[in-house]
From TrEMBL:
GO biological process, one term: carbon fixation
Alphabetized Pfam families for the sequence: PEPcase
Protein name, as recorded: Uncharacterized protein
Entry-linked InterPro entries: PEP_COase, Pyrv/PenolPyrv_kinase-like_dom
Length: 42
């Protein structure tokens, strides 16, 4: 199963860029996305 961030409100959506940047700054998470999901976070 893919784990994906859930943005349910307008406030969440406004902060989505920051959340994704933080996630992708984690080495093991970024490498997992690159190796297993063709470099795309859903």
């Amino acid at each position: 199963l893919r784990v994906v961030p859930l943005f349910e409100t307008v406030k969440d959506l406004r902060g989505a860029g920051s959340v994704i940047r933080k996630l992708l700054s984690i080495d093991w998470y970024r490498e997992h996305i690159i190796q297993n999901h063709n470099g795309h976070q859903e």
